[in-house]
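== Fold encoding ==
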Amino acid sequence: MYLISVRTLNKTARAISQRTREFMETKVEQRKQFECLLIQHVKQQEELGQRSVRGPFEEKKMTQPAQECPLSEDTDRQVSAATVIQAGWRGRVTRTRVTAMHRAAVILQARWRGVLARRSLALMREQRRKFIWAATVIQAMYRGYWVRCKLRQVMQHAKYVSDEENSLEEDIDLNMNEEVC
């Protein structure tokens, strides 16, 4: 739909690559912190004499030994920040989906209204065609009636004139016969 320049595409690809690297580095760091917390938790449980807790965690392979896992003071802040970032991201994704669904619904509604309008227009055209046909038939019937009436009048007038001529001829013939006699 839109024409995007190669320069813009390259810039976007670089930004995506950079963000992907940052994301992966963050994930690795989070994994290390989780493992540190897990190791510390296991150690605390061992100290308390709860050896049954250790069972499921022994199978996990840790990337760092327990001595290299200092628990940072900012862990709570980082967890809170991560939660805020994740919530913001989920909100953005949800808003994007809702916007896309809204646009799709608007497009569907517009197309459906177009279908209904075309159907209505076709129906109106068909009704108009039938109306014009009916008007044409009525006009033809009236014209035929009018012509027949006029023809009847002309015929009656012609008959009257013919009768008058005949009567005049008879009168003339009678008058001539009377004069001759």
